[in-house]
Amino acid sequence: MKIKFLFITLLLSSIVSLAQEVVELKTTASNLIVIKLMFRNGSISDPKGKEGLTELTASLITEGGTKDLTSTQIKDKVYPWAAEFGSSVDKEVSVFTFIVHKDFLTPFYEIVKGLMLTPSFTEEDFKRVKSNQQNYVDQVIRSSSDEEYSKKALEDFLFKGTNYQHMVEGTSEGVKNITLDDVKNHYKNYFTRGNVMIGIAGNYTPEFLNTLKADVNQLSNTAVVLPLAGKAAMPDGIQVEIVAKDNALGSAIFTGFPMDITRSNDEFAALMVANSWLGEHRKSYSHLYQKIREARSMNYGDYSYIEWYDNGGSNMLPVTGVPRWSNYFSIWIRPVQTAKGLKAQYPELGKINVGHAHFALRMAIHEMDKLINDGMTKEDFELTRTFLRSYCKLYAQTPQKQLGFLMDSKFYGRKNYLSELDALLAKVTLDDVNNAMKKYWQTKNMCVTIVTDKTEAEPLAKSLKSNLASPMSYSNVLKSALPKEVLEEDKSIENYPLNVKSVSIVNSADTFR
After folding, report:
1. What is the distance between the alpha carbons of residues 107 and 202, in angstroms, rounded to a whole number?
2. Among 242, 269, 316, 498, which is least packed, fewest CB within 10 Å?
């Protein structure tokens, strides 16, 4: 009886409440009206064998037509209004965003209502949108950016066996299996009135907000039972997966480990300080950047993260609409040169077998170890905290971003994350930061993905498996210009012990199947 009662309790707790949740951002000075609809329905809701269904459903809603208008007619109508709309799907949420000048709100809203309440879901639109998604999982992810590829491959590796494993866009076989009826049923069963948070910003009227709430209430009233977010198991030692592909220009590296903390926890602010000093995204002052790129000219940059950072190759500031309960730490080492590339450029390096990947990984882990063990200095702490308190104020420079952060705050059980974060940073101490690192960070158990050229895969795997020395390979010109202390430090790094327990090689064509 106790087991049965527990099961019923858990089931009821996972059924989304039908109470309507609204986040308002009244900005009387703005000429824009922003509407956001956040559904607690992300790629973790994809049925097994149909991975990518949530993404395809959301895309078809905003890229298809309505019962009254085709997708082409919609584009023609919104163009003169300079209106914007689209969808984004992540692991746990799907967000629809609509932006228009207040002068055109009335006609634009009719289109918004049509897309959300009466999407046409035609066979023609379905085939077009599905074809684009299939092309992404089959081709684009493997060929457009090895950096994004290694990041998605890390999640696939780290979350293996969970509903977090597959890309939001799905798998090759999963997308193939999706039918139009699957999309229609997923829309009815998951994009529901009891599973949505309404967000609105701008100089809107109370009457319009009431209309919006009433219309959203016309969505399906199906009671949604949401799956729990998959949790990554802590790796046993350092586990490396090398993805071998033809004609890779370098070795793109992502490494990470599960971390049991999110923005909902006040200690997150202390970790932000440590992470900013170690590897703030796209910032040249950060430590990893200075050690790997600046001092050694190995790549274009090196960064660290304490939560998912969406599309870091394009976004200089964090985006909204990607809140997650299953979190992990990661380091992004932008592509370093392979032996093939180095030998082609520098005759003096003709005898090397492995490029810079092993050394770069050792350098990053060595510097993180040093930070965890020694802690930040008082001076570095004060400077970094001061920087962060200013920098975080740049996160939300538009009503759209401000609204997005407010809605994400609700996801984490907070009221206003950015203002609360500033208050937390104001009172955080050096001891708080150093203790948080010791509590949440480590380097002995990590997953590592390396996307590299096929010629590099086997020699690199052997070097990692055997913990071979990985001397840094410089051209003669560069080596002659380097300070003595850099070359001496290289000697200590090239043999730095890594707790490598397993190394596997995967053919690029076999990923995300």
Report:
1. 17
2. 316
Ranges of the chain whose pLDDT falls below 70: 1-19
Contact 298, 463 (CB under 8 A): no
In this prediction, residue 20 carries a pLDDT of 81
| The pLDDT of residue 481 | 96
Name the residue range of residue 325's domain.
238-510
pLDDT for the residue 19? 56
- Strand 196-202 vs strand 238-245: parallel, antiparallel, or unpaired? unpaired
Answer whether 305's CB lies under 8 Å from 332's CB: yes
Give the DSSP letter string of 84-136: EEEEEE-SS-EEEEEEEEGGGHHHHHHHHHHHHHSB---HHHHHHHHHHHHHI
Helix (H) or strand (E) holding 243: strand 238-245
- Residue 42 domain-assigned? yes
* Amino acid in position 255: T
Residues 270 and 194 in one domain: no
Cα–Cα distance, 114 to 198 (Å, whole number): 17
Q: Are strands 251-258 and 328-336 parallel, antiparallel or unpaired?
A: antiparallel
**251, 340: one domain:** yes
Q: Which helix (H) or strand (E) holds 253?
A: strand 251-258
Instruction: Give the pLDDT score at 339.
Output: 98
Q: Residue 189 is part of a domain; what is its CATH number? A: 3.30.830.10
Give 505's strand partners. 242
In 3D space, the residue among 187, 208, 43 whose CA is nearest the CA of residue 121 turns out to be: 187
139 and 257 in a single domain? The answer is no
Rounded distance, CA 198 to CA 225, Å?
Answer: 20
Same domain, 289 and 365: yes
Q: What is the pLDDT of residues 348-369, one digit of tens each?
A: 999 999 999 999 999 999 999 9
Half-sphere exposure of residue 85: CA atoms within 13 angstroms, side-chain side: 32
467: left (phi over 0), alpha (psi -120 to 50) or beta: left
Residue 151 confidence (pLDDT): 98
Which of 154, 181, 216 finishes a domain?
Answer: 216
Q: 468 and 320, same structural domain?
A: yes
Do 253 and 382 have their domain in common? Answer: yes
Number of domains in the chain: 2
